[in-house]
Specification:
Keywords: Membrane, Transmembrane, Transmembrane helix. By secondary structure, the protein is mainly alpha-helical. It is built from eight helices and no strands. The chain has a single domain, classed as Four Helix Bundle (Hemerythrin (Met), subunit A). The protein is elongated, with a radius of gyration of 22 Å. Mean pLDDT is 84; it is low at 1-10 and 12-19. The chain binds protoporphyrin IX containing FE. Residues 62, 65-66, 71, 74-75, 78-79, 82, 142, 145-146, 149-150, 153, 157-159, 163, 166-167, 170-171, 173-174 line the site of protoporphyrin IX containing FE.
């Protein structure tokens, strides 16, 4: 008896063609059209969701450090946010540049009947340029703030000599990431929703 038959004979386990349930969860259409229902792409929808989720977590982290003085919680939340940002941006860039060959191919999937042309396309390009100012500076500023904080504060962080510089870098990073998030959602809206 081959292993397929052996597994198939175990009660409760069935091996065979994908069931309809899995067919609905894994759907190749989702990779090219996304899951938010606006015909973008999976990675674009993923990054937009991540950007929207980052802001409330960031606000909570600031509340934890400023009001509750829970420095360790603040440190851990900032590390998690940093890793999320890095993974989302890397995966997004790989998908956008190497899989789709640039954002124009996602917006205008069908060259026969492009979704955006002329003045509309120009407007979306301008929104994207504004977004890129924030999106490119954020990882650099965020990385600098994070690495310096990890190097200069103690393992169990408390205010100290690095506080002043950290607060300046920290608030600039906060403004930058909120700018990235807001302009990213704005781009998504004008390119796919409006
Ligand atoms: C990119 C990541 C980070 C950002 C954006 C950030 C942001 C901030 C901001 C805006 C403040 C000032 C709050 C206030 O005005 O009172 C702050 C305070 C603080 N952060 Fe961060 N932080 C980050 C990472 C870290 C890490 C990794 C650590 C620890 C290793 C840390 C430790 C602290 C401490 C100890 C304070 C209190 C400073 C004081 O009140 O003197 N932060 N952070």
């Amino acid at each position: 008896m081959d292993s397929r038959c052996a597994a198939a004979s175990i009660p409760g386990i069935s091996i065979g063609p994908p069931t309809r349930k899995w067919g609905r969860l894994y759907n190749p259409h989702m990779l090219t059209h996304g899951f938010l229902g606006y015909d973008a792409s999976f990675m674009l929808d993923f990054v937009v969701t991540a950007l929207a989720a980052i802001v409330p977590i960031l606000l909570y982290s600031l509340y934890a450090v400023k009001v509750q003085r829970r420095y360790l919680l603040h440190r851990n939340l900032q590390i998690i946010l940093g890793i999320t940002l890095l993974v989302a941006v890397t995966a997004f860039e790989v998908d956008m540049q190497f899989i789709h060959g640039g954002w124009r191919n996602i917006v205008n999937k069908n060259p026969e009947s492009p979704r955006l042309t002329g003045a509309e396309f120009e407007h979306v390009s301008r929104v994207l340029r504004v977004h890129l100012i924030f999106a490119i500076t954020t990882p650099l500023l965020w990385g600098t703030t994070l690495i310096l904080a990890l190097r200069e504060f103690a393992r169990t962080p408390v205010p100290g000599k690095h506080s002043q510089l950290h607060k300046t870098l920290g608030w600039l990073s906060v403004i930058d990431i909120v700018g990235t998030s807001v302009t990213g959602l704005w781009f998504y809206y004008v390119a796919f929703v409006a």
